[in-house]
Structures are given as C-alpha cells and as structure tokens.
Design a protein that fits this description.
Layout (H helix, E strand, L loop, with lengths): L9 E6 L4 H12 L4 E8 L15 E8 L9 E2 L2 H4 L13 E5 L1 E5 L10 E2 L6 E2 L4 E3 L3 H9 L3 E2 L10 E5 L6 E2 L4 E2 L1 H4 L2 H12 L10 H11 L17 H13 L4
Parallel strand pairs: 2-13
Antiparallel strand pairs: 1-3, 2-3, 4-12, 5-11, 6-9, 7-8, 10-11
Length: 254
Amino acid sequence: ARTLLREDGLIFVSIDDNEVHNLRAVMDEVFGPENFIANIAWEKRYTRSNNARLFYSLKDSIIVYRSSATVGLLREARTEKSDAIYKNPDEDERGEWTSSSYVNPATKAQRPNLVYPITNPNTGEVVEHPTHAWKYEPAEHERHVREKRLWWAKDGRAKYPRLKVFLSESDGGLVPIDLWDYQSSGTTDDGGAEVKELFSEAVFDNPKPTKLLKRIMKLVTSSEDQDIVLDFFAGSASTAHAIMSLNSEDGGNR
C-alpha cells in the first residue's frame, strides 16, 4: 500500500481493540511514526449487549497515516450545524461571528510574556486575570483593539473580553476530530441494512456503512480531481458504493 500511494496520499485502516496496538507498531515501521495522522474512534454501535461478561465495545479504531509530509492540512466541509453558532448581535458590518475565550489555559508563571493589562473601552476599567495569562501577545492584542474584535458582552461590562471570530474569515472548513459518532458516520447495522436491501439477505458480515466511507472520501478527495481510491478488502464493495453515491451527489469523477 505504501508504494502505491502518491506523495499526497493517505491510508485508513479499520481495526478493533484486539489488534490496534500491533497495527500501530506495524504502521509506524512501514510509514514512519512522523506520518501518523490520527486514531479515529468510530462509534460503530450505540446499544450495549447484555451478553458481554466484562466490557462491550461500541467502537472500532480507524488508523490514519499519510504517505509523506506533503499532506500538511486536512479540513472537513462546514455544515449547517457548525455555522449555526455564528450570530451578529451587534450588527457588525463584517457579518456573523462567534467568540472564543481570551484567557489562556496557561498560568501567568508559565507564560509571563502574555501577561499585561487590558482596558475595557466601555467602562474604562483596567482588567488583569488573577491567575492566568492571555492567549495573545501584546502586539496581537493591540491589533484586536484597533479592529474592534473584542466582545465585552451586550452590556459592555463582561469581566473578561472574548475574541470575535468571523464566519467570513474562516478557511472554508472544519478541523477534523478523532471521535466519529454514529449519527454522522453510520453503524455496522446501517451497513448490514444496505447490503440486505441490495441482495435481500445478509450475504456479508459487518459491512462498513457507506455513510462512514463517504465521510472519509469527503475529507481526503475532491469532486474537482480524479482521485483514486483503493480498497484492499473490497468484499461487499461498500467503498465502491460510497464513491459512486458521492460522485452522483457532487458531480465528481473519483
């Protein structure tokens, strides 16, 4: 697989808890530990079995490696849910925004270069956090002040400011996370139902749901490129099913 991948290629390997530690060791040896990207926990089921004597596993792992450092950025597409947090309560001409904390998780002792007074322009009060540093260096803070990016709540009297983050300035995507819930990624039951719908019976055990595979494809392929996807264990052809479905949706030519 490594020799087949392009320089900007990625590989996803699904496995359960019994062998995930061995898989990581083998993948590190073949691809190099510096090319490890993520260990995604996929919620393959959402109900527990009372037949289990100890623990019942609701997840599988999907190990992700890149072919080389050419892959330096991954983004998932924005969704209505992700954009719903953006509002414009002060009618800012830059459009809808959300806010993030200005307080650093690090303490003042840990980041003394990020300790300085902040003035609330609405009250004139000079503010310092009693225990923690700010997130931004003084020069960056001054830019935030000039550009009116600090939010002091509707009444202008918040204890600490928050930073405005504008939807119009987003990079067009979301940072991927390594916990994929069943609502967004499907379950093994969904995969089984898809195969049963096609063949009128369960001819394959535990096939992957196309919802999971399409999420992977959306993350690493584009409708504008003729990307190639190879499934080494193509038993039920769920990967081909997912790609054909995705191409149909977005006009792609994967």
